[in-house]
Amino acid sequence: MSPKIILVTGGAGYIGSVCTEQLISAGYKVVVIDNLSTGHRQAVHSRAKFVQGNIGNKSLMGLIFKKYKFNCVIHFAARTLVSEASTRPNLYFSNNVTNGLHLLDVMRESNCRKIIFSSSAAVYGEPKHTPISEHHPTRPLNAYGESKLMFEKVLKHYKSAFGLNYIVFRYFNPAGASKNYGEFHDPETHLVPLVLQVAAGNRTKFNIYGNDYDTPDGTCIRDFPHVEDIANAHILALKKIDQFSGSVYNLGSQIGFSVRQVISAATKITGAKIPVEIVSRRPGDPSRLVATSSRAKQELGWRPQYPDLKDIIASAWAWFQLHPRGYNTSHG
After folding, report:
1. Is 327 a catalytic site residue?
2. Is residue 332 part of a domain?
3. pTM of the predicted model, to two decimals?
4. What is the pLDDT of residue 1?
5. Which of 14, 144, 158, 181 is catalytic?
6. DSSP-H helix ranges across the chain
């Protein structure tokens, strides 16, 4: 029996690269499409077929689907900068919704009926309670979260009208790295890599946006699932997409860590001083964002292997030391 062929959109990005790695380890054949606007060619596994292009290019996508008989699409490709989403919402609706519609239409024309969609905790907006379950109200605060929620709704209608099978994953704050693939954005906005850049001497200090929140140490609390655990959820979903089609799952560690706790753990792991500066709060930053992932555990059998903050940061630091300037350069 020939291995199943999976199309990974945005497979040159952070989570896409780790997911591709796990798919290949699990025996799947993988084709990656990425326009490399934020992804990196070096992040694509050597055994994956790579196509540089945009999922909004229907003629290109038609050719790819004609050449490969995909069993499923894992859809990561999206714009994800929350700060940019507030000033350039057109890019977010164009990339995350319109291009996604083009992808779905090519899938229909090619009789590919399965998709796993990379959504976000940003669909929830300001939390009414924590931990956040999938039943929490969805009230996005920006065009990024809104575009993700809109595409979730599109999938629901495509299932009803066209028989599309889908699973949606809402990520919280993915962190860490596999041995070969890690987190590198330009500009970098995520907590763990920013802290590690200070530890490495690439930045002079780390800004803490507010220390007067209603939390034990006054700093925001966030949920940091390991990127390898997130990738593993997609492998499990491939096996159960027919059974649980139309389902939405939170992917979080269910454990919240404060900004101060992340800095403290990074200090111990790196052995470096990490100077901080307290600056004013950012608008729209909730004090706590923590998920309950019990549904993914019950239905998909998801069992996070790296719930410990020290393990998450240690894996990110190990990758960072091999790639001190991300995918631009590497040592070893």
Report:
1. no
2. no
3. 0.95
4. 52
5. 144
6. 14-25, 58-67, 82-87, 89-93, 99-109, 143-162, 191-199, 227-240, 259-270, 294-295, 309-322
